[in-house]
Specification:
Elements lengths: L12 E3 L2 E3 L9 H14 L3 E4 L10 H8 L4 E3 L1 H10 L16 H8 L2 E3 L10 E2 L9 E4 L3 E4 L3 H15 L12 E7 L3 H15 L5 E5 L7 E7 L2 H6 L1 H7 L3 E3 L16
Parallel strand pairs: 3-8
Antiparallel strand pairs: 1-2, 4-5, 6-7, 7-8, 9-11, 9-12, 10-11
């Protein structure tokens, strides 16, 4: 019998100069949320959470992270002012009032009771990065950024955070990170041994070797990602020879016109 499940996403990624080191998907569980937030806050410079900040009983991100860091929840007055100004009454709540206590009002206020650290400047803990939104980014312990789980809002707020984030990056535009693509007609299993040898040679130089199957196409992709451009360029002839491929700008550049499945 299957009662529980987990999803572990594995891979090396570089996002605009930030090395994305870990992705976790966890349940609406106070202990799990708190443990993950504290662990990531201690280990990484910049942490983002997504989800669990809505109006219902299972939206427990604020309280869980607050508890993990020993912080009380505080009704944020500026967030309340913005909520009143920018949110529209739902058609199912024609008689809703901001002045009269009600379950609906309490549910709304739940979304702006935020964990606040009295020893830190509140302006650094509650960020309003988009004037069209009342939703704040709550920053806990200086590096845990709490965002909504709705994809559109998540992206909008993260974009709004960029002006504060970019000056802190060691490589703001990711210009120091180079990525090379090689298109090969060979199956992954056929080039696996060579790629293992190549990875061992590239690792000391800080260069990652990757391999990606392209289902439905005749060609697969081998990648190099790193900062040592000269070393990476020196590997081009060797790689092209060993994978019987060619360096390309885009994966599809070397595709033939009629594609078919390629075994991996």
């Amino acid at each position: 019998m299957i009662h529980t499940a987990a999803c572990l996403i594995i891979g090396d990624e570089v996002l605009g100069g930030i090395n994305l080191k870990r992705i976790e998907v966890i349940a609406d569980d106070e202990a799990e949320i708190g443990e993950a937030a504290r662990r990531m806050s201690e280990k990484y410079d910049f942490v983002v959470t997504s989800g669990g900040i809505g109006p219902t009983h299972d939206d427990i991100t604020y309280q869980s992270i607050g508890k993990a860091f020993g912080l009380e929840l505080k009704l944020h007055e500026d967030a309340l002012r913005r909520m009143k100004s920018l949110s529209k009454p739902h058609p199912s709540q024609p008689n809703f009032s901001w002045e009269e206590p009600s379950p609906a009002l309490e549910a709304k206020l739940r979304m702006i009771r935020l964990p606040i650290d009295g020893s830190r400047d509140e302006r650094d803990q509650v960020l309003f990065v988009d004037e069209a939104l009342w939703v704040p980014i709550n920053v806990v312990n200086g590096n845990v950024h709490i965002l909504p789980g709705i994809p559109r809002l998540f992206v909008q707020l993260l974009d709004g955070l960029k002006p504060r984030l970019v000056p802190r990056l060691t490589d703001p535009e990711g210009e120091g990170v180079y990525r090379m693509l090689f298109s090969t007609p060979m199956a992954e299993s056929q080039v696996a041994a060579y790629l293992t040898e190549l990875a061992a040679k590239a690792e000391p130089k800080g260069v990652k070797v990757g391999s990606y199957p392209r289902w439905g196409h005749k060609r697969n992709t081998v990648t190099l990602v790193g900062r040592d451009k000269a070393f990476m360029e020196s590997l081009i002839p060797e790689i092209e020879e060993n994978v019987e491929g060619v360096k390309v700008d885009k994966e599809e550049d070397a595709d033939p016109s009629d594609d078919e499945d390629l075994e991996s």
